[in-house]
Amino acid sequence: MEPTLTFFSGFGINDFWFLGEAAMRTMWISILSITLGTLFGVLFGWILYEGKLTAALTVAPVLDVFRSVPLIIQLVLFYNFAPIVGLNLDAFASGVAILTIYAAALVANVARGGIEAVDRSMRRASRSLGMTYWQDLRYVVLPIGGRAVFPAWVGVALGVMKDSALVSVLGYVELLKASQILITRTQEPFLILSIAGAFYFALSFPISRYAASLEKRWAQ
Amino acid sequence: MIEIRDLHKYFGALHVLKGIDLDVQKGEVLSIIGASGSGKSTLLYCINGLEPIQQGKVAVDETNVHAKSTDINKLRQKLGMVFQQWNSFPHLTALENVALAPRIVKGKPRAEARDIAVKQLTHVGLGDKLDVYPSALSGGQQQRLAIARALAMEPEYMLFDEATSALDPELVGEVLDTMRLLAEEGMTMICVTHEMGFARDVSDRVAFFHQGVMEEIGPPEQIFGQAKSEHTRKFLANVR
Prior knowledge:
The complex is a heterodimer of chains A (220) and B (240). Chain A is mainly α and 220 residues long.
């Protein structure tokens, strides 16, 4: 048999597992950055609500920058310039860092909206029962405001999950990057992108279904 | 006893309360009447420290409400308040609405807080609505829920801020009946109200507020029978 050099080979079952593994990475980076981003975002939202002038001069402009500059630019800038200030983060850590700040910037405004959604007289009622400021926030504002803006938050979370595809530009092999690698090898972009798309759908769909059922339960 | 001395309250440049002097004794039911914007609701907010004051003093059982050293959250446990908007917590059942504050503010165990809630909801006639969410209650029922919620803190005073003003006319009666019940039980009450029948029949004293001044105070027979002030007579002639 004549030895032949082949550049391309077809899509096999191993490649499917390769994509599956990459989907797990997409999920992992999304869960981390959405969770952290939500925690920071709620804190920033609270500062925006309570801080007024201070917030307008400090947090607000920073959040505006992160909300307005395209994510891909933020990622490339951060990944390449962080080492200059001594931050040697790998692609994964850089991705999580930027996605977290990006998510936090989006969640901050959602969270502020949530606090604003709770009527002032509702908060006076809870304070009149002897609740402290923090008890009022924890037991009244968080559940009521949280429910009011929950659909908006789900939108942000799903958006961040899809935007995590951009971390591929740093070389992190998540779902999109894995697809690109396979496309280069198999030359079957239609098949592979369809599978990758199906994976993204499989990640988002349960979230939106679960969110919808929660909303339905709360509406009762 | 609630003592109010030379109380002045401003909202910006607006002088809302212009030197109020008033004592409310334990067990007394005081109704405050007057036109909208006369400062009656603001007075209630000043009594439980929801609004800061600019001059004068409010003391509840000899504790200065607006002193920095006062633990206002502790003091508010003595002062139940019911608002015009009933403000039931929409995410909690009737039972949880009432049990929440005893549990987190007073630190009562869950079971005990539950017992208190059952007792107070039964007290206001909502004993059959324990597990119902506020959205399934009528306005009158939600307002009674708010009364039960305030009572669950075992307050010594109850402040009612136009508790029936936001209700449909056919629902006013049930809330007034609940307030009457409390009065008969000896609760100390300050009721800002537009319900002249309630003020006349239930109160020990009635105060008439006019443009930030307590124009006149006295037993209902005096206010509704032979009011001394021209403004009082004019107001009563218009609301009847």
